[in-house]
Write a structure and sequence with these properties.
Elements lengths: L7 H14 L4 H12 L5 H15 L3 H13 L3 H14 L3 H13 L3 H13 L9 H15 L1
Helix pairs in contact: 1-2, 2-3, 2-4, 3-4, 4-5, 4-6, 5-6, 6-7, 6-8
């Protein structure tokens, strides 16, 4: 809830304190990585946390999506595509498809981006919980694809 209210620093602090008690909690590692990805200065930390989760749990779709999204936000769309394709192939979460569509757009493939974004909308993307950054990027992507 704090993330949705824009209190990202507070949310990160809570996750970090939980992690001190449960250092291998995959969900906490993933959520902390997601929260830290919202802050450009903390993206390296976000990558370390999601990599730690992947090392402990393996390449689960949620973790691949998180890592792909962090790379995407960090301007590394080409590196993100494979991770996001794998995450989207395993789980039909429309947020994973949205992140993949964004990666396709940023790597110069707007046709693929449109197809995948349509699939995300068919999966009720806007009814899912989206980060503040996701909401902004979705609006930007839709505007770009309409041109």
């Amino acid at each position: 809830m704090r993330c949705l209210d824009g209190r990202v620093d507070e949310a990160a602090g809570i996750y970090e304190s939980i992690l001190q008690r449960r250092p291998q909690d995959i969900s906490v590692l993933n959520n902390l990585a997601t929260v830290l990805a919202e802050q450009p200065a903390r993206r390296d930390d976000a990558l370390r946390y999601v990599d730690r989760a992947i090392a402990a749990a393996g390449p689960k779709a949620a973790l691949l999506d998180t890592k792909g999204t962090i790379l995407l936000l960090d301007g590394k769309a080409r590196e993100a595509v494979g991770l996001l394709e794998e995450a989207s192939a395993v789980v039909s979460d429309p947020r994973y498809l949205f992140h993949l569509a964004l990666a396709y757009q940023r790597t110069g493939d707007p046709d693929k981006a449109r197809v995948v974004l349509d699939r995300a909308h068919d999966g009720n993307l806007t009814r899912k919980t989206l980060t503040e950054t996701d909401r902004r990027l979705l609006a930007e992507l839709e505007a770009e694809l309409r041109r």
